[in-house]
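User: quick one, fold this
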Amino acid sequence: MFGTDYGIDLGTASVLVYVKGKGIVLNEPSVVAIDKSSGKKIAVGEDARLMIGRTPGNIMAIRPMRDGVIADYQTTEIMLKYFLKKAGIKTWPFIKNRVVVCIPSGVTEVEERAVKQAASKAGATHVKVVEEPYAAAIGAGLDIFGPEGNLVIDIGGGTTDIAVISLGGIVTKTSIRMGGDRLDESIIRYIRKEYNLMIGERTAEDIKISVGCAIPEGNSENNEIDVRGRDLITGLPKTVTVNSKMTYKAMEEALEVIVAGVKEVLERTPPELAADIMNRGIIMTGGGSMVHSLDVRIARETGLAVMLADNPISCVALGTGKVLDSFK
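Assistant:
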């Protein structure tokens, strides 16, 4: 039987597809634009993301993944079929495609089964699911099969997965239904409260990437960005200036939850593995881990060395590729 092996990082914010022998061939936003009247897809991925907040009444831009799990099953199926087809999947009868899909470590059996079914209907013959921190650790180049302990923090769009891994398995873990999307929402709320200005999700994400900051000091007031939105009082377009210290205030509550999750996992870690983590430090992966100075904040709060993976966004997808090599 012929077939191809695929690894999928099915994220809340974006989907990455790994093809065995080719590497990561696709990295697109988890967004689908649908015509309300006919129910047909109009655009998927980056083309659909550009429509968020800009669609006329008959078009709806949907993000089918929420908090790391499937919120809209039919739309997720449409999205997966499109991405796998774009990645070159063949669905002929004699083709046997094997697919590894990453899921957050705290999902229920029902949520896991929904992911498997969506992948099967998208063209997968055999489906295996792996937990995101496990795949992230492999993709970051850690030796997870040795007796030493490794602490991984994977901050995605909808979830933050924190896990201690040793001897090829997860020893202790926690999954927080909070990630980059929650940070965006915090920025939207802060600007609405401080300036009576309504901004969209894309604008909030741009603010987070440009001037987002996880510690209050050490940032120049000149690290600023002009933000345009709609004034809630006059209803007219308006421009305000936002700097790094403002984004720190906006994201403080959400960041504190992530730091508390790291401390909780460390408290439950066996003493021998805790000693290993003290020597080896913490590795951070995922797009949310790239918020400026977040690694510095976690290092201060825990007293441990914290390192950002070489390619944080791609770690989970690269990890699925290595899992494919041992697919049974």
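User: anything notable?
Assistant: The chain has three domains: 5-134+316-324, 145-178+259-312, 180-250.
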